[in-house]
Amino acid sequence: MAVVVEQTIPFAREQLDTENTTRWNTLYPLIRPSIKALKTKSGQTVLVDQTLADDKFVRVVVIGKAGNFSSKLLSDKHITAVVTDCESGSECSSKDLVKAINEAGHQQQAGIVILRSGQQRSLTRVEDELVEVGLADDLDVDHLIHLLGATTDATRSSIETTYEVLKNFLNTSTTVTARFQTGKEGGRPAISNPEGQSSGYEEARHAIQEALEQAMRPHAKQKDGITHSVHYSDINGLSRLENYILGLEIATYLHQNLEAQPEPTNPLADETTEGSNLTKVDSRYMKFTDHAVRSRIENGCDAVIKEEATITRYDEIVGDGDCGYTLRDGAKQVLKFIANRNLSELPQTLSELVHDLEVNMGGTSGALYCIFLTSLSSALASTESVATALSVAMEQLLNYTRARLGDRTMLDCLIPFVETLKSTGDVKTALAEAERGVESTKNLEAKLGRSTYLDESATRGVPDPGAYGLLVLLKGMSVTE
After folding, report:
1. Model pTM?
2. What SUPFAM superfamilies is this protein classified in (predicted)?
3. Whether the domain at 2-171 and the domain at 290-477 fall into the same CATH topology
4. Poorest-pLDDT segment among 21-25, 100-104, 112-116, 465-469
5. In what order do the strands lie in the sheet with 35-39?
6. Which of 149, 274, 281, 303 lies in the 20 to 30 Å Cα band around 237?
7. Which CATH architecture has domain 2-171?
């Protein structure tokens, strides 16, 4: 099943020059230095990844459209070759591509799969070791890139098994397309539904619910169990944060509308559990008590609100001066949101909270907290401890920011806290390491954000506001009544 949400680019194609194949044939090797540009007998440029020359798995070759490279195509490391200049009507022979790859020194041990965009959906066994898949567009190609990359090593090592996986996907998948609009409907952001009708929406889940319902319709009478997962990418448009938000909405919809596997019954982890409540639980699927969760969240948010003036003062020196206000307003919104919620269902509550914060908490901090909480809500439902869930969420966050430890950001607080909590299980030790991390930012050179424009002497002695604000939150949450 595929749900396609296409972006609207606010620039003319002529300005972006997206269909200039020479441009992409030059840019792609710069993005991936391991790429080598070769020519086929008929004159097409083939961009071959030389790091896969000795790879034992089935080769994946993509014939796409210039200017429509998806983030998946640009980032995945199992794509052997890419062709962007096979224009309609020109010859782009599969056998020519295989020959070019062979001449580049690649050992064909397991066979080749060619994904060709701009075709009617089809699956052709060209030769025993050569399979070609025709797909409508580059987003369909992207789905198969993800599918082939996620298969087991045993599947990727066999052209026969890979062929069966592809056949099953093409026979059972459905695609529905909705498009975000630049204009508004009724004063709200607008989306064009699969029937082409435009309507306004309030939240991301409203924007894609109709498309999801239509995509699920052909599978309504399916008797066998349905296994689902979500992946997403952008093609010259949606940001990673927007993709992440849409991915959450799709995952939430599927979870609510597909029959879930029964969870095992296990003892509850509550305030009476020996040791820290943050780290010790008795079951893989954690359970929480409303009072314990509410106490920690309220104490953390209250601490941030009280410390707003200090955070603001720091940010007026080294930033835009809005960090304190952003964190304060976010904390107030959290308190308002949880007032009438059942916090014993923490993963679901966090998921719903993100919807609220997306609208009501701005700035870079708001985006980072939303990404982190989105991942945390999922991890809390599938890991054995809060410490592990925090670690999973942090790793996900690192996929969406270039910031790392030592860059003078909130990560100088988050990383030492999470890593120490996971390794020691002791909250006090983790807080001490987080505090040392925040203290270190007083002498660090800023590598990201507005502080990078300031002379180092201007930031010396002042902690990073985001890191300091997070420390205040964590300290507050460590206090229980």
Report:
1. 0.51
2. DhaL-like (SSF101473)
3. no
4. 21-25
5. 35-39, 45-49, 81-83, 59-63, 112-117, 130-135, 122-127
6. 149
7. 3-Layer(aba) Sandwich (3.40)
